[in-house]
Amino acid sequence: MIQSLQNTKVKEWKKLTTKKGRDKSGLFLVEGWHLTEEAIKADAVIEAIIKEGVELPSYMDAVEVHFVTEEISLALAETEHTQGVFAVCRQPEVQFESLQASNILMLDAIQDPGNIGTMIRTADAAGMDAVILGKGTADPYNAKVLRSAQGSHFHLPILKQDLFSSIEHCKESGIPVYGTSLQGAVTYKEAKAGEKFALIMGNEGAGVNNELLALTDQNLYIPIYGKSESLNVAIAAGILLYQLKGE
Amino acid sequence: MIQSLQNTKVKEWKKLTTKKGRDKSGLFLVEGWHLTEEAIKADAVIEAIIKEGVELPSYMDAVEVHFVTEEISLALAETEHTQGVFAVCRQPEVQFESLQASNILMLDAIQDPGNIGTMIRTADAAGMDAVILGKGTADPYNAKVLRSAQGSHFHLPILKQDLFSSIEHCKESGIPVYGTSLQGAVTYKEAKAGEKFALIMGNEGAGVNNELLALTDQNLYIPIYGKSESLNVAIAAGILLYQLKGE
Record keywords: Secreted included (chains A, B) (predicted)? Predict the structure, then answer.
């Protein structure tokens, strides 16, 4: 059992709680039984399982397990009541061009980790083939994003990639691209569901970048019937993805 | 300027950060410029405005303002970086029977304050006439619910009321009631949009109570096309409310 916070491995794991540490190593840390199990089920590349105490369910036999003290578990935890189990996973490196994706969600400068995680989960539920995170969107391997996505990180490819080149690639592949905007947009009910589509959701305050909106095939809006100023971006994504999916 | 944390008013306000204090007084506390302005705009019953420092925008002239120290402001704040402005508002007492509502969202034992707030905001956007919170649903005047709803508390009536009697009342008023369920349910696309409808969303883990589901006109489900186990309840509410609204 690892007992010291000064242990080299513990120090490396602790770095994964920062974006810098994740970017540098290409790894990320998931916390809790549910996410750890999802990682194993999905055959994710798991570098290590970290477990407080010395007991382990038998289905985890195949992976390298490091037993640690409660102190170390608490140092790694980002939830208030940690379950004391973690998996160190490798960030998959996926090229959009090699994916042959035909249903894509793109996120432009989304700030809130809960919104990003919920949109990854919703994209998964709606049967998307990929989620592309453009410039200015928070790190998808942030603990709060991982928690909100409830394991969907292991179900579909998540790419960090420039959205201009992504739109370009969609055009070349015959995938219609929909933006979301209040100006120069048509009501979302007019969007015809098709087998292929890409949808761009934008920043919580500013919306989708105007230069991106100029490149789309059509821009959509969701009418507001009451007095609220807007919908939460993840709610809007849910309504639009299911409308475009249309089955 | 009020300077002491022991001031009687300050002690009363502080109690509003707990459910017990809100229930006893029938008041609630909103924090930040946006929510305070929404309360004023909506002609909510405001018992007091609390403001750190001594300056105030002119449009707040008409209301009773208590200037307080930073220490008191921090004691009342439930956000990390408080804007130092608060409004003490009275919880409206509304009788469902007197509302003549025809579009209603009902929440059965929803636990997460962020989900409740987002659903109140979405119900507002979708033009609902009322949100009814049944037994076991967290307090709508909790600070996190208020923040997630972004002012929608002041746009439509929010009632705490038994859902069995609410369904009964809908039936008497010719309002079809839709439940949400995976069993004995039809896909949500089969729900015909109508002028009148009530929708019940259920607990994040357990869903809608089976006894309530037995009383509905129809139960709906949203298909999952990917590998996620479910949709977030607020996302599902958004998809369903806009489907039922149908315009």
Answer: no
